[in-house]
Design brief:
The chain has 16 helices and 38 strands. The strands form 9 sheets. Strands 6, 7, 8, 9, 12, 13 and 14 form a 7-stranded antiparallel β-sheet that branches. Strands 24, 27, 28, 29, 32, 33 and 34 form a 7-stranded antiparallel β-sheet that branches. It is globular and about 95 Å long. It has 4 domains: 3-28 and 387-535, Rossmann fold (3-Layer(aba) Sandwich); 35-175, Rossmann fold (3-Layer(aba) Sandwich), CATH 3.40.50.150; 180-381, Distorted Sandwich (Hnrnp arginine n-methyltransferase1); 538-753, Distorted Sandwich (Hnrnp arginine n-methyltransferase1). With 754 residues, it is an alpha+beta fold. A hairpin with a 5-residue loop joins strand 32 (640-648) and strand 33 (654-655). One of its GO terms (molecular function) is protein-arginine N-methyltransferase activity. Keywords: Methyltransferase, S-adenosyl-L-methionine, Signal, Transferase. It comes from Polarella glacialis. This is Protein arginine N-methyltransferase. Residues 355-377 are annotated as: Disordered.
């Protein structure tokens, strides 16, 4: 009788829900809802593009020129327009909180355009009437920056044409005049290792590839250094004319016959775009890799969609099969436009010849050649979309992490040796709560240990069962059961008794949302022997001071201005929202593949230790305060405190955020808290100057309780750096944080669970 049947029988007459209602993790937005605007304000190429475009267009507009800014956001483009001579600027921003910030920003810059009248209206542009505009007449110029990572990802063609046709005069100027969505087929060995886990220690992991979502899921990889190679030219798959086009101008799909310019395996489609300032394309703004600064890459970035070979009927197989091409080969590339271009799907198939494109459509494309109902592959039919998102966001990148697997294998080997030393005749068992099941597979294969792996999702569990079969691990040795281990019964465990070893995730990592602090209290009480062992055995929180103007671009406007535009309102808002008083999770940006320029002024040191073999045996103190001296190793300016978790096995082996493997930085977060020097004005976040040889005093308060970041139990941390400025702040609820400058001159930080 398998575990699922035993579980069903055990629960007869009981009601118990094993469904997962939501998953926290790296996909959540950090800081607060306006965080995107900091990277936009620090996107110098974006700002310069609109500055030059407005400077070129407004002189010809004449006296009394009226400008309409659709989707005004921060108000920066409205300020530019007024500064270049517009008499009237109508800034439309539907978000009332954002509109209020824009209004404050415009007021603070009014001295630079005293003769201009700038009005902020918090309405959808579709509800604005031309009678509301200056002198009740239509505008002379419409400017908009309503583009997403996909060109039409923010739905620009759903509302800009309406504003153009109703609120812009005939013959009026559009900025930008148009744009183009580009696609390039690429090969990338970093991607291959991350989403196509190779074998590990003889384990055949090829079946995990059925978890790849090559249709709906996409990875945003801006500001990343990966080993991609263009196998085709960058081609325009959708050109948009903002003077003429509407949402009806976007086809359902288009097909392109293109030629491989290099030999390789098509692993992904790369999406980026260009926009141009006028019909002559005098100025071009691009999101192509390498065209932007760090903030611009974070703000827009570019997307990657995993690829597999489509059949002659455009359908995808039961199992992904990659398309290998030689230079000169012909490829059919089909582009499906979802919701009028708000989302885009690409798929490729082999073409036999450079057949003449039919119909002579613009861009050399054929409209409608891929049946719109071709749909998704059968392997993801009826699969919970959250499960597939979890698989592609976290599970596959973790499953491809060989260094991680080696660490866990070493920890299990050491635990088995310790158990054998204690009692050589005892048959030990293992409970794997790590989510990947590979620790359980290793224990079963190498040590013959009966093991139970417990992923959270049924679909992932079914795939792991097949992986076990592929590696000749039968159910008598290892079982896979998708459920929350906190809702498990000991009689359903291997041998019908408590486990001798339990494997848990490192703290802070987002796989299936269960940290060891959430799992261990229940597991230790119900499922682990009193003298059982935990792998990994120890964890620590590392902390250091970092210098990075680019990192500061994520949460502030360094210096409080761009060019001559006063943006101190945004730094004041960052303070009010708690940028100086809480740790914020960031994945990707501090890893080895990130383009972020930064340096550690103090080497990361362990400031809080956790013995996971003792955790939850006794109640920890509700609160404790630890003091540390951070030794400064190099002169510099400290912009932020950066923390991260590390774990250790029973030996000296360590696993942490440092790795050359792309998947590690996508799934192992750093936590960032901004710093400001003492006496810094409210609109400026000046970094703290430090000198080599000095020691920066740190006070760390640890509270046990409900997490503020991930929603699971565990320690929360209040960081206090002596002499740093915290300023005034309030959390999103509007309440002032329960921290203040204390008598010894230290500064409090809002508690955050990691």
């Amino acid at each position: 009788m398998d575990l699922a049947m035993r579980m069903t029988m055990k629960l007869a007459g009981l009601w118990l829900a094993f469904g997962v209602t939501g998953i926290g993790g790296a996909g959540k937005k950090p800081l607060f809802e306006y965080d995107d605007h900091y990277v936009m304000l620090n996107d110098f190429a974006r700002n310069a593009f609109y500055e030059r475009a407005l400077a070129a267009a407004l002189p010809a507009c004449g006296k009394g020129c009226s400008v309409l800014d659709v989707g005004a956001g921060s108000g920066l483009l409205s300020i530019m327009a007024a500064g270049h001579g517009a008499a009237h600027v109508f800034a439309i921003e539907a978000n009332p909180d954002l509109a209020e910030l824009a209004e404050r920003t415009i007021e603070r810059n009014q001295r630079n355009f005293p003769g201009a009248n700038v009005t902020v209206v918090s309405q959808l542009s579709s509800r604005v009437q031309f009678s509301q505009l200056a002198q009740g007449r239509r505008a002379d110029l419409l400017v908009t920056e309503t583009f997403g990572t996909i060109l039409l990802g923010e739905g620009a063609l759903n509302f800009v044409p309406d504003a153009r046709d109703r609120l812009l005069k005939e013959g009026g100027v559009m900025i930008p005049a148009g744009g183009c969505q580009y696609v390039t087929l690429i090969q990338d060995t970093d991607l291959s290792a991350t989403w196509q886990p190779p074998e590990w220690h003889g384990f055949n992991l090829s079946h995990l590839r059925v978890l790849q979502d090559t249709v709906y899921w996409k990875a945003m990889v801006g500001a990343q250094k990966t080993s991609y190679q263009h196998l085709t030219e960058r081609i325009c798959v959708l050109e948009v004319d903002l003077y003429e086009d509407t949402s009806d101008s976007v086809p359902k799909n288009r097909t392109f016959r293109i030629q491989a310019k290099a030999s390789g395996t098509i692993q992904a489609a790369l999406f980026d775009w260009d926009i141009w300032s006028d019909v002559q394309r005098t100025e071009v703004l691009s999101t192509a890799p390498g065209s932007r600064n760090f903030a611009g890459d974070v703000a827009w970035g570019w997307l990657l969609q995993l690829q597999e070979e489509a059949g002659p009927d455009w359908k995808l197989g039961k199992r992904p099969s990659q398309l290998r091409v030689e230079a000169g080969d012909w490829i059919d590339l089909a582009i499906e436009f979802i919701a009028r271009g708000i989302s885009i799907h690409a798929r490729a198939r082999r073409a036999d010849s450079p057949a003449t494109v039919e119909g002579g459509a613009k861009d050399g494309a054929r409209d409608g050649t891929m049946p719109w109902e071709v749909g998704s592959p059968s392997r993801i039919h009826s699969v919970d979309r959250r499960s597939m998102r979890e698989a592609n966001d976290f599970f596959l990148p973790v499953a491809g992490d060989r260094e991680r697997h080696n660490f866990y294998a070493s920890g299990i080997d050491a635990a088995v040796a310790e158990l054998s030393r204690r009692n050589a005749s005892k048959k030990s068992t293992l409970l794997d709560c790590s989510g990947t099941a590979l620790p359980a597979f290793h224990a079963a294969q190498k040590h013959g240990m009966k093991s139970l792996a417990m992923p959270r999702w049924t679909h992932i569990g079914d795939v792991l069962k097949q992986v076990a079969q592929d590696n000749h691990l039968n159910r008598s040795v290892v079982e896979v059961f998708a459920a929350d281990p906190r809702e498990m019964f000991d009689i359903l465990m291997p041998e019908g008794k408590r486990a001798d070893i339990v494997v848990v995730e490192p703290p802070g990592t987002p796989l299936h949302g269960l940290s060891p602090f959430a799992v261990l209290p229940t597991v230790r009480k119900e499922l682990l022997e009193a003298d059982g062992l935990v792998v990994p055995g120890r964890a620590c929180l590392e902390l250091g001071l970092v210098e990075s103007v680019e990192l500061a671009h994520l949460f502030s406007v360094p210096g409080g201005s761009w060019d001559k535009v006063d943006l101190t309102v945004w730094n004041e808002e960052a303070r009010r929202r708690g940028v100086l008083t809480r740790l914020v999770p960031y994945t990707k940006w501090l890893g080895s593949h990130s383009t972020l320029k930064h340096r550690w002024l103090s080497k990361p040191v362990c400031v809080f230790h956790v013995d996971l073999n003792e955790y939850a045996k006794v109640q920890p103190p509700p609160e404790e305060t630890l003091s540390h001296d951070l030794e400064i190793h190099v002169d510099g300016l400290a912009h932020a405190v950066v923390t991260r978790w590390a774990v250790f096995s029973s030996g000296a082996e360590k696993l942490d955020a440092e790795s050359d493997y792309l998947g590690r930085e996508l799934t192992w977060p750093h936590y960032v808290q901004a710093l400001a020097a003492p006496g810094t004005g409210p609109g400026v976040l000046d970094p703290i100057p430090v000198r080599a040889g000095e020691a920066q005093q740190l006070k760390l308060t640890v509270k046990q309780g409900s997490a503020k970041v991930t929603g699971s139990a565990g320690p929360e941390f209040t960081i206090r750096i002596v002499g740093a400025d915290v300023g005034e702040s309030e959390i999103s609820s509007g309440k002032v944080p329960e921290v203040a400058r204390v008598d010894d001159g230290t500064v409090g930080s809002k508690a955050s669970e990691l």
